[in-house]
Target: gibberellin 3beta-dioxygenase
Amino acid sequence: MASKSLFSLPHETKLKAARSPDGISGYGLARISSFFSKLMWSEGFTIVGSPLEHFQQLWPQDYIKLCDIIEEYQKEMKKLAGRLMWLMLASLGITKEDIKWANPKGDLKDNCDALQLNYYPACPDPDRAMGLAAHTDSTLLTILHQNNTNGLQMMKDGSGWVTVPPVSGGLVINVGDLLHILSNGLYPSVLHRAVVNRNQDRLSVAYLYGPPSSVQISPLSKLVGPSQPPLYRSITWTEYLRTKAKYFNKALLSVKVCAPFNGFLDVSDHNSVTVG
Ligand SMILES: O=C(O)CCC(=O)C(=O)O
Ligand SMILES: [Fe+2]
Model:
C-alpha cells in the first residue's frame, strides 16, 4: 500500500516531506528516537489530519489516489477504535453516559488521532540494532497493522519479551497509557518494541487513537471507591504528551497519586515527543 511506495522512494524525495523540527507530521526518525542516544534502525512517517501537502511533494502525479487510501484507512480505524474502546469499557460496567466527552452515539467529540508509518529495513547485524525501543503508547488505544515479517515484541509478566507474530488480515490492539489512567489501571498499557530482521524489510502502520486533546482524563468515577482509590491524577492528552516528552517510560508513574517523590525520575536525556 501507500506505505511501501513511500519508503521505497529515493532518500532525496522523502526529504521533501521531512518533518520540520517543531512539526508533528512528515518523514523522519521514529517519534521516540529523541529519547535515546543511539539511532534506531527504522524510518517513520507521521500523518496528523490530511497527508495532502506532504504527499503532493512525494508524488506530484499520483498523490490524490494515495491520500484517498490513507484517509479511508484513518476513517475505518477511527470507527474500529471507538467500537473497541466502548466494548472494553462496557466490560467494566461503563456506559456512554459515564464519559462526558463522548456524545450519545458514542463518538468522541473532536477526538485526536494520528497514523504512524514505520519502516524497518533488513539489518545485516540485527542483534546489535533496535527497530523501535521499548515504550508504551500515549494513546487510549493503538491499532497496529504489520506486514508478514516478525518484529513486534511485547513485555509479558513472567515471560519477558514475547514476539507477536503477524497474522494475515489481523490487527494488533495495544492499550495505551490514557486507557490505563481512565480504567484506573484495570487495562494496563503494554510495553512493546520492534526488533529488526536480517533478511526481510518490515513495515507497520500504527493508528494512534486519543481523546480530544484538552479534556481531563482521570480514573472513571464508577471504577473508584473507598476500596479502590484513584491511582492517577487527571491530565489532558496534551499535558500527558508533554509529560511523556520529559519523563518517557516513567511518565505514567509521574502522574500516579502518591508517587514517591525522590529518585524515580531521570530527566537527563529527554527533549520532545509528539504523538504515540
Ligand atoms: O512496528 C511495530 O510493530 C511497532 C510500532 C509501534 O509501536 C509504534 O509505532 O508505536
Ligand atoms: Fe508503539
Q: What stands out?
A: Residues 135, 137, 142, 192, 206 surround fe (ii) ion (ligand 2) (CB under 6 Å).
